[in-house]
Specification:
Elements: H1 3-10, E1 23-28, H2 35-41, H3 43-49, E2 53-58, E3 62-65, E4 71-77, H4 99-113, E5 118-122, H5 124-137, E6 147-151, E7 173-178, H6 186-193, E8 199-204, H7 214-233, H8 235-241
Parallel strand pairs: 1-2, 1-5, 5-6, 6-7, 7-8
Antiparallel strand pairs: 3-4
Amino acid sequence: MSDNNSNSNQSSTTNNKEDRPKLKILAFHGYRQNGTLFKGKIGSFRKTVSKYAQLYFISATHKVFNEEGGGDEDSRSWWFNAEDNTFSGKCLGGPAIGFEDTLRLIEGVVKEYGPFDGFMGFSQGACLVGLLAAMQQKGYLPYTFKFAIFASGFRSGSLVHKGFYDEDIDLPSLHVYGESDSIIPKEMSESLINLFIKPVVAEHSGGHYVACSGSIKDAYLDFLHDRFQDIFEDPEKNNKRNP
């Protein structure tokens, strides 16, 4: 993990105004974003969940190259699904270039800053969290997380990822998506949702962004309240979290 990613992790915490534990959530940005940009874009979400959670932001390792062939430090991708090192959520049957690098990055972050109670992702980051949830279900990960939050999530169309989606995922999950999202249409989000055994779903009328107002805000709070009780107030689960 680079120093920049490390700094993104450490700078993402919110002030702890109450003497109470907080859920630790690792946040994954979307395509052509990075941890710092993503943190800045979801201020309302960060403020809403701060009652229950402490967020950590990291940046993907892969630079997104511009038309001139140069890499943009601010634009990152968790992997590429086209041979020209680009990514599209609607691409089916492509590769997953750099995905193993991303898995190693996350493993390192969890070792240094974890364990994390939950993962949260937006767009490509949400697709990544879905893959991690499916891999955890199969016992493929060297770490665990106890819940997931998806904003504009979808299934990966990469061929090497297809086998991860062949069984139901038993993990508490909240799925938020926009009815008018043209980048990740709601049918794509619903396809991911269908993998989870007991998903909580919150639809808003907007497009491709992390919504956080009205009923969506309430959905975040209700979901995290339940996870807080599961992890910190249930003795059996709390003992498992802190062996």
